[in-house]
Amino acid sequence: MTHAAPGARAPADRREAVHGGVRVTAAAAAGFYGCLYGLDRPVMALYALFGAVAMGLLARIPGSGRQRAAVLLVTLPLGWVLVSAGTLLAVHTWSAVAGMAVVGFCLAFAAVAGPRAAGAAPGLQLLYILPSFPPYEPGTLWERLVGYTLGALLLTASERFLLPVPPPGATYRGLLADAAALAGTAAEQLSAVPPAGPQRGTTPDELAAAGERLRPSQVPPAERPASAARTDRALSHAAGAVRALLGQLAAMIRAAPPGAGRRPDPACAALLTAVADACARTASAARHPSAPSPYGAHSGDPPELRTAVERFQQARADSGAADGGRPPAEVLRRRTAVLAAAQTTRILAAAVDVARGGRRPRPLFPDSDLFSYADAGALALWRSRVQGHLTRSSVQFQNAVRITLGLCAARLVAGAFDIEHGFWVLLAVLTLGRSTAVETWSTVRSALLGTFAGALAAAVLIIGAGPSRPVYAALLAPVMLTAFAAGALFGPAWGQALFTLVVSVAFAQLAPVTWQLAETRLLDVVTGSVIGLACSLLAWPAGARRETVRSMGRLLHTTALLLEETTAEVLRPPADAEGPPPSTLAARHALRLAEASFAQYQSEPRSTAREGPHPDFHAVDVTARQILLGAHWLPYDICSRDGGPGPRSRTWARQTAAALAGTCTRLGDRLLADRPPKTPPPEPAEPAGPPDPDDPALPVLLDLDVWFTGVRSALAPALAAADRPYETRT
Q1: Tens of pLDDT along 512-539?
Q2: What three-state secondary structure class fits 294?
């Protein structure tokens, strides 16, 4: 009856399992006893009980006690609609099935709105399922609504005041601020002239660890910026920027660590100082979102950093003009890396400002659509999110279809064969279904054993206690507490066994029952389990594995095209610049779908069978972000050249971009085939040599060269892992 991982071992997990059982038991028992014995309203008592169970146990709302209580209050009107719809559509089996199709898909697809909506959806499904079965009694609708409302409000009070879940130790904004502050420290150390001693340097491992802490999989679900709202999109945007910035600074430290005897470069030092100052201000702005903006009316684009970048670009373009020569290639490359870090910092600062409630920043780059979402209305943002996932390539869409098929089939079977207590069939489909056939079978097998044991115990109890309501009334609360905690602690077998006892004890107080109630419960669970298992076998039985591989393949294809388009745009003369490469939006969309698939894949058990090429998915993600980062600003770095590069440089840039894009495309083809490879994985793209050192546009060519090197380095782990079998984790 629970989605919690069985066998939770951490003391905090065990404690929260018990606390959660206490909260749900207190709300369910208070509503049930009060309505049944205080008001003598059996229907109201039933809905008070299942209202608390649905939203407290079946729903897995993440967050603190205050956050959970807020979600419960927000979903209360939706619960009224669902209970009403279920009651009215129960008049015919086909109308109930049609309603189940609409409600089932909409609630399951609500996962695109983020963890809170996804967590509340199963509980809301039950609020439609319970009243959608005979007897058809619309006259009892007011009792059902009052009972559900009472149960939900009691649960809200329990979540808020009875052993509430404490707030998380660190918020996402706090983690973002910490990462930005660490980036500022690293930039300040790199800017030190003379170089700082090695004992004062921030290590690349520390920078990498700060970036990893911002990965969604490392953050509590309630803190993830996963919705389509402007604030969450900006926070996610800022997290990607700060992770890229940390990687750029780490690469500079590895290339020339503080104290390594590098020659002072005043130009780099000045720009890095501006980067450090902007990072410190951005960290403060992220940590205190209600404080005044540190940039005044500049909408998040730090004026000092913007001015420093413009001066740096002009000085870099004019370097050597006075004496007819240029600085050494090593100095030029370092300046290119510093400029890239400064541009990333500008993106970070602007994204944080949007997350604080600001509107679209002053354009960081001409014609850039980098922050197009900042001025879009909430309706437009949500419409874009929904449309983006209404595709077979979305795991949220796949899950919604799978769940809807199972619920509709279960409702049709229960209605066609007039199964007694048929809502238990749908409840089994809803609680035992998983995103892979293997995991569904494992859960069903355990649940059936538990249900059989629970049904046997319930039959013995009913035969022994007979029609004595006081016995059942005395047993209900302790049995509920044990059942609700045991499912989270020991797995579905214990949860189903004890929940069978719970429903038997509860129904024995509503009307006279016989031991056959336990038999009905067992048959219903078996029926629901068979339907759920059949749907898991027929609809995407491998879960997110195959879709993750394919979405990563499509992502590599899209970013390969973007890489070549960005290079072509950089090679244009300034007067012919056309703005953002056409594939930018497609690459962002492909990245969102790939990350959603990967997030579900990480939550599923791994098969022990070799199932085709398995890249390093994280490396593919980093590669895509590296390409997107360059596409954001490289085409607009035109103020540092008066004309386009020469023929030799154009050839070099196109050949290098084509080689890298070809490697990405071949790896993408390998993933899209999704079968054991018969050919070796594609070889890494070798550099086509350095750019022409005498080209007038050398600074821009070095920007491209550093970008190519970053993409090549990010792609290497994915190529190395392309021929490995999948993880063997149970």
Answers
A1: 888 788 888 888 888 988 898 888 777 6
A2: coil
What is the Cα–Cα distance from 297 to 108, expressed in whole angstroms?
42
Cα torsion 78, 80, 82, 88 to 10°: value is: -150
Looking at the predicted structure, is the pLDDT value of residue 229 above 50? yes
- C-alpha–C-alpha distance, residues 216 and 292, integer Å: 28
The DSSP code for 372 is G
Distances, alpha carbon 691 to alpha carbons 75, 447, 652, in Å:
60, 65, 6
Which DSSP helix (H) or strand (E) runs through 564? Answer: helix 544-570
CA 467 to chain centre: 50
Rounded distance between C-alpha atoms, residue 331 and residue 325, angstroms = 13
Task: Give the residue carrying structure tokens 């490995």.
Answer: 724
Euclidean distance between CA atoms 252 and 190, whole angstroms: 8
DSSP tag of 721? T
* Dist. CA 4–CA 189, nearest whole Å: 45
**pLDDT tens for each residue of 439-482:** 888 888 888 999 999 899 999 999 988 888 899 999 999 999 99
pLDDT in tens, 302-332: 888 888 888 887 777 666 444 455 677 778 8
- Crossing angle between the packed helical segments 378-389 and 230-255, to the nearest 10 degrees: 70
Residues contacting residue 346 through CB under 8 Å, at least 6 positions apart: 278, 301, 302, 305, 306, 309, 364
Nearest Cα to Cα of residue 187 among 319, 282, 298:
282
Contact between 536 and 38 under an 8 Å Cβ cutoff? The reply is no
Helices and strands in the chain, H and E counts: 24, 0
**Contact (CB, 8 A) for 433 and 402:** yes
Q: What is the mean pLDDT of residues 76-89?
A: 96
The tokens for 577 are 């610049």
Omega before 574 within 30 of 0, i.e. cis: no
> What confidence tens digit (pLDDT) does each residue in 582-640 have?
788 888 888 888 888 887 777 666 544 444 445 678 788 888 888 988 887 787 664 44
DSSP H or E stretch at residue 373? none
From the CB of residue 434, how many other CB atoms can be counted at a distance below 10 Å?
A: 20
Q: Cα(first)–Cα(last) distance of the chain, in Å?
A: 21
pLDDT at 126: 95
